[in-house]
Amino acid sequence: MADLWQNAMDHAVALARTAGAVVREALQDERKVMMKSSSVDLVTQTDQKVEQLIIQSVKDKFPTHRFIGEESVAAGEACVLTDSPTWIIDPIDGTTNFVHGYPFVAISIGFAVNKQLEFGVVYSCVEDKMFTARRGKGAFCNGRPLQVSDQKEISQSIVATEFGSIRDPETVDKVLSSMRKILCIPVHGIRGAGTAAVNMCHVACGCVDAYYEIGIHVWDVAAAAVIVSEAGGVLMDVTGGQLDLMSRRVLAASSRSIGERISREIEAFAPVRDDAPPPQ
Ligand SMILES: O=P(O)(O)OC(CO)CO
Ligand SMILES: [Mg+2]
Ligand SMILES: [Mg+2]
To answer: What Gene3D superfamilies is this protein classified in (predicted)?
Structure first.
């Protein structure tokens, strides 16, 4: 049987490539930075332009589909995942990197139907790496198959994480305490690319063995979640329970045992959910 969503996936790949060219071009110019929820939660006109470009093109081709887009939600759109075909878009994952010219910047496009993720496209546009995965059909980078690492020994692992953009001292203490405990296992090292989507693609590639973060959003992880699981990895909540895409918490690992071992060291906290009703 023909794959029902292959057309949509082909369109997502083409759009990610076009969007990536826009982002690369914008890296040559001065970038005007605006703030969202805080002085470390940044947005630029390129984020907004790229999201509009993607959404308009999808609307023209698939008029009944719905959207969850980072900058649309920031502008007041609801962040609700229904059973309808839904595109989950982060126009620039790694805006802080983009602002500073730090070379990990990705366009992330996930697609869900009946609340199940069907495909994910992450284009790391400075490196020109196109990560793709269709549910049940494997994960690829520039067409080459991806496989997570077979590392089973936590003390020989590299773990990716980020400091995040929630900077009240109590939260920062929890973030640092988790990192401290993981460092002291000890693991080989802790890394962070500055984009959740690329960190997860690094799990899929096998160059890191796990990635976790609290404070990310559904648009940061939806696309890369398909890429990790199709590369043979596992996704879970930071407590080791089931992943909840709207919870703003994710742990991706090369195996359940590595994931659960890391989850034991994480001081979990619960940011306001992505699907929480807006404050009155
Ligand atoms: O750069 P963005 O899209 O704000 O995303 C951050 C996390 O929220 C990096 O993954
Ligand atoms: Mg993001
Ligand atoms: Mg973004």
So the answer is: 3.40.190.80, Fructose-1,6-Bisphosphatase, subunit A, domain 1
